[in-house]
Amino acid sequence: MNDHVMDFRFIHQAEAHAVISCKSYLRSTEIEEGYCTDMKEYVGQVWLFSECCGPRSPSSIQQKAQQIGYDNYWHLYTWSKNKGTIHQNLQGWDDFVTKVKALRQ
Questions:
Q1: What is this structure's pTM?
Q2: Is 55 exposed, middle or buried (0-12, 13-18, 19+ CB in 10 A)?
Q3: Given 5, 35, 49, 67, which is the most exposed site by the fewest CB atoms within 10 A?
């Protein structure tokens, strides 16, 4: 059984539908503008996905990601470093999965 969190594969550029930049913990100040711009030369959609971010960060991250040119942003959960609390973003996860599945159509 293969239980990898991420599975990397090389594909032909013409077959790529989107590039997904994945981050473990993301702050709005850490969003890579150059990466998005560079990838847009090769594929139509560039998405941003973070495993987690701070509880007050999702909207500012999404806003900055859109300004830079990312087509979508999702996070799996928020995590407060001070309180140690985690809040799952199940709706965001469902939306991400739906968008990934739609790429195959």
A1: 0.86
A2: middle
A3: 5
